[in-house]
Design goal:
Layout (H helix, E strand, L loop, with lengths): L1 H31 L6 H19 L4 H25 L8 H23 L4 E2 L9 E4 L2 E4 H23 L1 H11 L1 H6 L4 H27 L1 E2 L3 H16 L4 H21 L4 H15 L10
Antiparallel strand pairs: 1-4, 2-3
Length: 291
């Protein structure tokens, strides 16, 4: 029983990390129809700069982690907004060009990070509590999983409330449905779309910092690795469905943990099989809209 509980909670923690990365992908695609392969760059640069600032200010403390998270969110939002403003804005409705350009940014980003910080992982320091465990019903749960789960819940609630309860959220949703009508009302929809990218980048930035907590290191390939699972989560949940991404992230991560433990480390294979099954049985994903 304790083993099952441990795998379940650690799976929820990993799922929370997947969701933080996938939420930005799902938001950007759902509202703007852009499959952003450069999303991993937002995550990686945020993780590196968050680590650089934290180690100079208060490394290995809660204050350092909070500063790192804040830097990650700001950097992720700024880089994502700049990417939309200078590059993606000229490529709306040109999906092949979008894919090629964002893949190019992703590859160039990895090369840039390796040139600056090297190709080897850089191990990070975290508050002592995050490296400890809490016993629940006989299972010793790593404390960092609780932090990941809490942050993912806050991000999900925050994005949903923003889209449904704020003026900009209304403008964004209206602009997606009928851009010409909103523009005719004198509203600059382009500014709202830049904001969508910034929100997605901020979520990725926070995910990058928390990935360094989960894995214990930052590296030039951190975003690339997580981006693979983020796309799987986004497709399984349903392209553009934020709730679907949350459900799929938990499903993927929990199955991955159980398969790794009980089926000899075959977690990644099980996830790929799940993806194939969903695409065959329900191509639009668990909660995606019908075409």
């Amino acid at each position: 029983m304790s083993t099952v509980l441990l795998l379940l909670v650690t799976g929820l923690g990993l799922g929370a990390l997947y969701f933080l990365v996938a939420s930005g992908l799902s938001l950007i695609y759902g509202l703007m129809g852009v499959l952003n392969f450069a999303h991993g760059v937002f995550l990686t640069v945020s993780a590196f700069l968050g680590w650089e600032v934290a180690r100079r200010v208060s490394d290995g403390t809660w204050a350092g982690l909070a500063i790192s998270a804040l830097v990650g969110i700001v950097v992720g939002a700024a880089v994502a907004a700049a990417t939309e403003y200078f590059i993606i804005r000229r490529l709306y409705e040109r999906h092949i060009e979008q894919a090629l350009v964002t893949v190019g940014i992703s590859l160039a980003g990895v090369a840039l990070f390796e040139g600056i910080w090297g190709s080897d992982p850089i191990y990070t320091k975290q508050p002592a509590w995050l490296g400890a465990t809490t016993e629940i019903l006989g299972a010793r749960i790593p404390n960092d999983r609780f932090l990941l789960i809490a942050c993912a819940v806050l991000v999900l609630v925050g994005i949903v409330l923003f889209l449904r309860k704020t003026r900009y959220g209304l403008i964004i949703r209206a602009g997606v449905e009928n851009r010409q009508m909103v523009t005719a009302l004198g509203i600059d929809v382009r500014r709202s779309f830049t904001l969508v990218f910034a929100i997605g980048g901020a979520a990725a930035g926070l995910g990058g910092v928390l990935a360094s907590v989960y894995y214990g290191y930052v590296s030039a390939h951190l975003g690339s690795v997580l981006l693979i699972f983020a796309f799987i989560v986004t497709v399984i949940g349903g392209l553009g469905s934020l709730t679907g991404a949350a459900v799929a992230a938990v499903l993927v991560a929990v199955l991955q943990q159980f398969a790794n433990y009980y089926l000899g480390g075959t977690g990644d294979l099980v996830v790929v099989v799940l993806l194939a099954a969903v695409l065959l049985i329900r191509p639009r994903g668990l909660m995606g809209k019908a075409a």
